[in-house]
Design brief:
Largest sheet: 15 strands, mixed
Order of helices and strands: HHHEEEEEHEHEHEEHEHEEEEEEEE
Low-confidence stretches: none
Distance between the termini: 85 Å
Shape: elongated
Strand order of the largest sheet: 4-5-3-2-1-6-7-8-9-10-11-16-15-14-18
Radius of gyration: 25 Å
Number of helices: 8
Number of strands: 18
Structural class: alpha/beta
Length: about 325
């Protein structure tokens, strides 16, 4: 039976919207290439929760209600617009020419009116594309959930990028493993929910005291016992660090020479068993053999300081309003000097 073509754009608006709601991003992308009018009509589709991201090998993907949809690079015209599946690792993929993936990135933003970037990074040592997409996000006032800065052979490129980073609206996570020069300084203007910084010598006590994150992890730090004591003394005051739930710092400066809250490291109580605290579906934290610290408003914190090759400072905050304690030791000593 011969199939009759459908004058899709002549369908009433309400029905056309319903049709588009049944289409995934790859199908809608193909439709957008048919004509300017077809592309413009795609604004009928509700894309408020859509997110865009990119990764290695010039891949771009879109997240929507149905899952993940990928655009993969090919220069073979015979492969254009073909779909491949790689379940369960990822969703369906379409092959397109991504020689200049910035063009497709901007095309998808314009076509689908996407307002959230799921993640940005300098993978493949590609700081230029990160700089390009970051400026686009700033210009369009987009939310950027995650930014990851991997270490690069040419640190100068990352140094030049940092002023751009300050202008971005990063909401969820910032991760950095760049080995900056010893004289590097940077002050965050706005903090996301979580920061993870390796080679964190440049993250000083002033930044820690100003930090508004929920989760903080610093590796290769140079914070000292005295600075940890200053932090905890401030934390104990009512109204300070209202967001903080988890703090983990590896620092060579932690020693057994000076006290933290009048205790000489290592700081722990061997008989205290494992404590598990949940702050939501994905955030589960554990700490064992910890010492309880009481805030002026009654909030509980759990502190553990270990020595060794890489001494560690761990601090877990239990907030009655949004935390669930799955297991907690009964034998402990509340510290509230």
């Amino acid at each position: 039976m011969k199939r009759m073509p459908i004058a899709l754009l002549k369908i009433p608006t309400d029905l056309l919207r319903d049709v588009f709601e049944q289409c995934n991003p790859l199908e809608l992308y193909c439709l957008s290439k048919c004509s300017k009018r077809a592309r413009k009509s795609l604004t009928l589709r509700d894309t408020r929760d859509w997110k865009i991201s990119y990764g290695e090998s010039k891949k771009i993907w879109i997240w929507c209600e149905e899952g993940e949809y990928n655009f993969k690079h090919t220069t073979n015209p015979d492969q254009y617009y073909k779909i491949s599946f790689s379940w369960p690792q990822s969703g369906p993929s379409m092959f397109v020419d991504l020689s200049d993936r910035g063009d497709l990135f901007n095309y998808l933003l314009e076509t689908f009116k996407i307002s959230i970037v799921e993640s940005m990074n300098n993978d493949d040592q590609d700081i230029d594309f990160l700089r390009q997409t970051a400026r686009t996000a700033i210009h369009r006032n987009m939310e950027v959930e995650q930014v990851t800065l991997y270490n690069m052979e040419n640190t100068r490129d990352v140094l030049d990028f940092m002023p751009i980073l300050d202008q971005m609206k990063i909401t969820q996570n910032f991760s950095c493993s760049v080995r900056f020069p010893s004289n590097f300084q940077h002050q965050f203007i706005m903090y996301p929910n979580e920061i993870r910084i390796h080679n964190s010598i440049w993250f000083n006590i002033g930044q820690l005291l100003d930090c508004t994150c929920v989760k903080i992890k610093l590796c290769q730090s140079m914070l000292s016992n005295q600075e940890f004591d200053v932090f905890l003394q401030k934390w104990k005051k009512a109204g300070t660090f209202p967001n903080l739930r988890s703090l983990e710092i590896w620092s060579k400066k932690i020693d057994n020479e000076s006290p933290i809250l009048e205790m000489i490291p290592p700081i722990n109580i061997v008989d205290n068993p494992l404590i598990k605290v949940s702050f939501g579906k994905r955030d589960l934290f554990e700490i064992s053999e910890a010492v309880r610290v009481i805030k002026d408003d009654g909030t509980e914190g759990w502190l553990k300081v270990e020595l060794g090759e890489w001494p560690t400072f761990e601090f877990l905050v239990v907030s009655p309003g949004n935390s669930v304690v799955a297991e907690i030791g009964q034998r402990d000593e509340a510290l509230n000097p």
